[in-house]
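Provenance

Sequences were taken from public entries as deposited. Structures were produced by running a predictor on each sequence independently, with no templates supplied. The record for Serine/threonine protein kinase from Mycolicibacterium holsaticum is shown for reference.
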Amino acid sequence: MVSATPAVLVFGAAVGVSLATALLPSTAVAQTSYPTDDRGFVASSVRCDAPQSAVSFGRTAQSLVAICLAPDGHYEYRGARLGDDAVLVVVAEPTVPGEFFAQKDGATYTVTAKQLVIKTDEWVRAEPMLDFQTPPMVPVPPQ
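Predicted structure for Serine/threonine protein kinase:
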């Protein structure tokens, strides 16, 4: 029995390298994995430290982001730019239900289930969420 994969490879070889080249970027992106648990992205700076709880976390094509809740009730924004792994950890504030706001050095970061919006005085970038999770809230014992 012949599988579909060899037929596709033969077709791609017959058409030329340009077809294979055109398929590689989307295949590479599809294979990229960012494992998660109830505190955010595993083995990443975008993971809430114990005893914090993750309120939400998400992934865009360019970024990973998590909103963490500390036992004292304060929120924290944790974000990483995927292109160069630049990490930002700053205080976050809830603005309306389901939306969080953080700022650093003239840039603002707004996180919702739909997108991450990064604004400066000179530009605005809206990054649609590819994956967004809101784990069940577990009470954090006071310290």
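DSSP finds two helices and eleven strands in the chain.
The radius of gyration is 20 Å.
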